[in-house]
Amino acid sequence: MPDGAAPVLDVKDLKTVFKTRAGEIHAVNSVSFDLRPGELLGVVGESGSGKSVTMMSLIGLLPTPPAEIRAGQVVFKDQNLLSIDETGLRDIRGKRIGFVFQDPMTSLNPVFNVGFQIGEPLRKHMGLSKSAARTRAVELLELVGIPDARRRLNDYPHQFSGGMRQRVMIAIALACDPEVLIADEPTTALDVTIQAQILDLVKELREKLGMAIIWITHDLGVIAGIADRVLVMYAGQVVEQAPVQELFANPQHPYTRSLLKTIPTVSGERAQRLQVIEGQPPILTASPTACPFLPRCAHHFDRCAAENPARRPVAPGHDAACFWDPTTGAPR
Q: 237-243 and 212-217 as β-strands: parallel, antiparallel, unpaired?
């Protein structure tokens, strides 16, 4: 990626709530990050940590109501996406920002063949004729590694395997050559062999097309193999961010350290017992005023109960939202 290049996406203090009968759920709490040209940014955390809601908030994919974006800026190419109406967002979604959803079987329309579904954004955003869109759809299927692409344009989603359906979803997301691709746990439902194929495909496409990618996952092993930089989310906020090698070598937040310990390892002759993070993430009926990880943290201080720590630099390009210093075991 170019040194010193301006971010292609710059998110500042994003807040999203859901209005329910039981009250408001504060799903995203003052999330800030940027995405640089050509970068692959990994976003990790447990289920319910706010990863998907944050990314869907960026491009208006949440139903409103019950969702409401309360505050923040999402600057894409000098445009604040939160101030653009739905018509303007439709022009950006698919054309300039692609999105790959977690489950391709529910994301693809079962009553249309894949040729139609790949060609639809090409006709809408690029103004291609039906025949030109079909030719481009063949090229896209070949790009994502689907054999006999021209014949398979007429097939329906149920005629593809899970891995092939995910490749079709990636082809749709890439149809208009977007500058940013957001992939929401696209390999979670796939077996490890197909998962490895999809990851290799994404690496290849990134090198070939030069797009910036946000990869959402709960799997730190995946992140280690593909990401440049990592955001760790917990309770709707970013608790740590760092270059990927720095994060694995020098994790600073107790939650990040706990996540890394849950990765299965094989060492020595005896199998190691899988570690777990005791407790459950909080239900965010209010914006956190204390550290949200406090009930599950073995390193908390009195200050943690009185104040939600802000992210602060701990190394170049590395910051963490924690009062504890893992080097000294004392407050920072």
A: unpaired
